């Protein structure tokens, strides 16, 4: 099955380079390009890609705003943010709005391809070094009090949340806790609802912030 990709970056050279590299992969197809967030939204509407590679800093509309709009209007489209190390604040915001992860712009092409396949299957792509830096920067600005909803989680839900933060999928959590995958899914649904979180990516960030 071919994964359709939309490339969003204000630099034509970067878009062309990514396109050339990605089209070496037989299961990846670049269906469109956009030079800013506003064009990206219209392109998603017209092309319905599976995955969007989204630059952060662009004229007209930046990648964070575009990510928010696309995730609201097209929840089936998965977004991978393209970033540099000094974009960590923007990356955190994009993930809060629904991006499934991020890639550094100098990531090797085979790793970019692997990340695209992962998010297309519903997984997240969070590089540990970048996430740690973002969380550290957030901690410097504020020491967040424990949300009341966190205290309402059951001990089992807390165990599941901590394992999500470590990157475990439902099958792995089931094996570790000796419960069924169906039970894990129920726990995940319950804790997301109680904590008012959108998905596992937000749950991982939440857990790394408060636990």
Compose a concise summary of this entry.
This protein is of the alpha/beta class and 211 residues long.
Beta-strand residue percentage: 5-15%
Structural class: alpha/beta
- Helix count equals 11
First-last Cα distance: 39 Å
**Uncertain parts:** none
Account of the protein in words:
The chain is 55% helix and 13% strand. It is built from 11 helices and 5 strands. Strands 2-1-3-4-5 form a 5-stranded parallel beta sheet, sandwiched between helices. α4 links the parallel β4 and β5. It is globular and about 50 Å long. The mean pLDDT is 86.
Q: Layout of helices and strands, plus pairs?
A:
Layout: E1 3-8, H1 12-22, E2 28-34, H2 37-47, E3 51-55, H3 63-73, E4 78-83, H4 88-96, E5 101-104, H5 109-120, H6 128-141, H7 148-151, H8 155-165, H9 170-177, H10 181-195, H11 200-210
Parallel strand pairs: 1-2, 1-3, 3-4, 4-5
Give a quick set of tags describing it.
alpha/beta; 11 helices; 211 residues
């Amino acid at each position: 099955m071919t994964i359709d990709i939309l490339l969003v970056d204000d630099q034509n050279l970067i878009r062309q380079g990514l396109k050339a590299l990605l089209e070496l992969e037989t299961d990846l197809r670049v269906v469109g390009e956009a030079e800013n967030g506003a064009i990206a939204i219209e392109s998603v509407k017209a092309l319905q890609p599976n995955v969007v590679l989204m630059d952060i800093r662009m004229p007209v509309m930046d990648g964070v705003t575009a990510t928010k709009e696309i995730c609201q209007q097209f929840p089936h489209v998965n977004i991978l943010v393209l970033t540099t190390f000094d974009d960590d604040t923007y990356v955190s915001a994009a993930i809060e709005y629904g991006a499934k992860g991020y890639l550094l712009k100098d990531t090797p092409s085979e790793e970019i391809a692997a990340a695209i396949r992962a998010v297309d299957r519903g997984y997240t792509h969070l590089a540990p070094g970048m996430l740690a830096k973002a969380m550290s920067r957030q901690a410097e600005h504020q020491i967040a009090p424990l949300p009341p909803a966190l205290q309402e989680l059951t001990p089992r839900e807390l165990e599941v949340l901590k394992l999500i933060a470590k990157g475990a999928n439902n099958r792995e959590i089931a094996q570790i806790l000796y419960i069924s995958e169906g039970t894990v899914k129920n726990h995940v649904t319950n804790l997301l609802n109680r904590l008012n979180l959108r998905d596992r990516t937000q749950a991982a960030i939440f857990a790394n912030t408060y636990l």
